[in-house]
């Protein structure tokens, strides 16, 4: 099972996670999506929000296209 | 309305207009003093019905409220009112009844009655009959000049109920109540409270008025007015938002929230994380069946609502200020917060003052307000517009 955790903290939300949480990913039957409260990464100026954690690996600046790519990548590796 | 005796005083009323009249002739006014917790409530029934009666009762209730608040003795209050009221052109008298209930700190109740049906003091399943000390006063053109005073100390869960003759005389001339409802109302009140010991003042007042209307065969023959004062424990809520300025105080914050005896609302992911860590529990953020216009809500045991912080609070403030738009989603987190807050009597805001640096980033597409200011605004709105008791604690 692939576990996708989308940060729903204020910074992530206004920087784009609001677009991620509404994505219909029901076609990926092995993917479980949930939100998370602020992961406290928004102060990291190296990377940028919104943050998504996929199976324990952190991804920054995730857009809807990037999220799909990341999921595809993980799924094809299984 | 919070009184010093740690009791909450709920005052509620219900009025039904006499059939055929455009305005109610009875007036009910209630006011509490924010500093002392004193609550003064007046019910007045003006001579006749409709606008004319409304003018007489409004003048009476307003004068009674102001003069009693100012500490003027009851007899002088009554004389001043009778001397001031305009004289009815048809009847050549000036007349309006009143009942004044003055509740000071320590739940001391002073009641002054002039020609209204006698008040009812419900305590522990019984109707208590206190001595009513009668006094005469100069009533001008009217021959009705008896004032009745009673004093007592109320206990928690007591109720004081008073009404216009539209209630006590309802059903007059009918087969069931040839002489009016009279004492029947006492039994009805007892049965209602027996059925539901926690019945709110509002609900009780509504039920009594509805019963009076029913006695009149659903055609009110007089103005029906009923006031219920209920001495009860306040319903509490705590809204926690923002991490403490010093992380060493996290533990105190968690303890304080844990010990709170009321609804708990947390606005802010970081704040929720602190509590989850201190309480050794987990937060989940389900994304199914949510309002997509707002950041989603979280779930954690021991907390009634968990939402995002500053965006949600901004919307709460907007809803409180301008009302809830019709198209608002029923799962909107701000709506759920507003509903919870408005259902409570006293709201404590526990506000962490740590500034979220990420929100100060100029690259942010929207400007985010400082938490402290928005919470202050919400607190002020609840106090001024919705008459709630609020408390702000900065941590």
The number of helical runs of chain A is: 2
Please state how the strands of the largest beta sheet of chain B are arranged side by side: 2-3-4-5-9-8
Work out the strand percent of chain A: 15-25%
* Alpha-beta classification of chain B: alpha+beta
Spatial separation of the terminal alpha carbons of chain A:
10 Å
Report helical residue fraction of chain A: 25-40%
What characteristic shape of chain A results from the CA principal axes?
globular
Unreliable stretches of chain A: none
The major β-sheet of chain A equals: 4 strands, mixed
Q: Please list the strands of the largest sheet of chain A in the order they lie side by side.
A: 2-1-3-4
Q: Segments of chain B where pLDDT lies below 50 for 5+ residues?
A: 1-6
SS summary, helix count of chain B? 10
In terms of quaternary structure, what is this? heterodimer
Order of helices and strands of chain A: EHEEEH
SSE series of chain B: EEEHHEEEEEEEHHHEEHEHEHHEHE
Mean pLDDT of chain A equals: 90
Helix content of chain B: 25-40%
Provide structural commentary.
The complex is a heterodimer of chains A (78) and B (395). A 4-stranded mixed β-sheet of chain A has the order 2-1-3-4, covered by helices on one side. Chain A is an alpha+beta fold and 78 residues long. Chain A has helices at 10-20, 64-77; strands spanning 2-7, 31-36, 52-54, 57-59. The radius of gyration of chain A is 12 Å and the shape is globular. The longest helix of chain A has 14 residues, at 64-77. Chain B is α+β, with helices and mostly antiparallel strands and 395 residues long. Helix content of chain B is 31%, strand content 25%. In chain B, strand 15, helix 10 (371-384) and strand 16 (389-394) form a beta-alpha-beta unit. In chain B, helix 6 (250-259) packs across helix 7 (269-279) and helix 8 (310-322) packs across helix 9 (333-343). The radius of gyration of chain B is 26 Å and the shape is elongated.
């Amino acid at each position: 099972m692939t576990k996708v955790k989308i940060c729903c903290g204020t910074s992530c939300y206004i920087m784009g996670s609001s677009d991620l949480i509404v994505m219909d990913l029901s076609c990926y039957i092995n993917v479980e999506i949930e939100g998370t409260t602020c992961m406290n990464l928004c102060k990291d100026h190296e990377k940028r929000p919104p943050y998504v954690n996929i199976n324990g690996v952190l991804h920054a600046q995730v857009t809807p296209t990037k999220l799909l790519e990341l999921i595809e990548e993980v799924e094809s590796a299984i | 309305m919070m009184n010093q005796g740690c009791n909450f005083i709920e005052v509620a009323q219900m009025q039904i207009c006499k059939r055929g009249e455009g305005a109610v002739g009875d007036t009910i006014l209630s006011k509490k003093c924010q500093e002392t917790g004193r609550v003064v409530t007046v019910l007045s029934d003006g001579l006749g019905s409709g606008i004319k009666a409304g003018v007489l009762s409004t003048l009476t209730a307003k004068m009674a409220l102001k003069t009693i608040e100012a500490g003027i003795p009851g007899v002088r209050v009554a004389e001043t009112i009778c001397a001031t009221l305009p004289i009815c052109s048809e009847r050549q008298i000036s007349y309006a009844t009143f009942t004044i209930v003055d509740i000071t700190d320590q739940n001391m109740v002073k009641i002054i009655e002039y020609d209204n049906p006698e008040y009812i003091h419900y305590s522990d399943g019984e109707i208590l009959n206190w001595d009513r000390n009668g006094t005469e006063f100069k009533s001008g053109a009217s021959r009705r000049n008896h004032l009745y005073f009673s004093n007592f100390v109320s206990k928690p869960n007591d109720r004081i109920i008073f009404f216009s003759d539209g209630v006590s005389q309802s059903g007059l001339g009918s087969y069931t109540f040839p002489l009016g409802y009279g004492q029947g109302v006492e039994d009805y009140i007892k049965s209602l409270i027996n059925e539901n010991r926690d019945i709110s003042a509002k609900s009780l007042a509504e039920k009594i008025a509805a019963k009076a209307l029913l006695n009149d065969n659903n055609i009110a023959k007089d103005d029906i007015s009923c006031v219920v004062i209920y001495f009860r424990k306040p319903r509490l809520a705590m809204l926690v938002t923002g991490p403490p300025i010093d992380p060493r105080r996290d533990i105190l914050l968690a303890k304080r929230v844990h010990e709170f005896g009321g609804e708990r609302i947390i606005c802010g992911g970081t704040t929720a994380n602190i509590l989850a860590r201190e309480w050794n529990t987990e937060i989940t953020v389900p994304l199914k069946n949510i309002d997509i216009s707002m950041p989603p809500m979280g779930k954690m045991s021991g907390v009634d609502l968990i939402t995002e912080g500053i965006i949600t609070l901004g919307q709460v403030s907007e809803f409180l200020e301008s009302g809830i738009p019709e198209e608002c989603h029923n799962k909107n987190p701000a709506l759920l917060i507003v509903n919870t807050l408005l259902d409570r009597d006293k709201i404590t805001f526990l506000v962490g003052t740590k500034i979220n640096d990420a929100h100060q980033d100029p690259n942010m597409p929207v400007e985010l307000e400082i938490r402290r200011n928005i919470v202050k605004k919400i607190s002020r709105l609840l106090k001024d517009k919705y008459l709630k008791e609020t408390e702000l604690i900065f941590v």
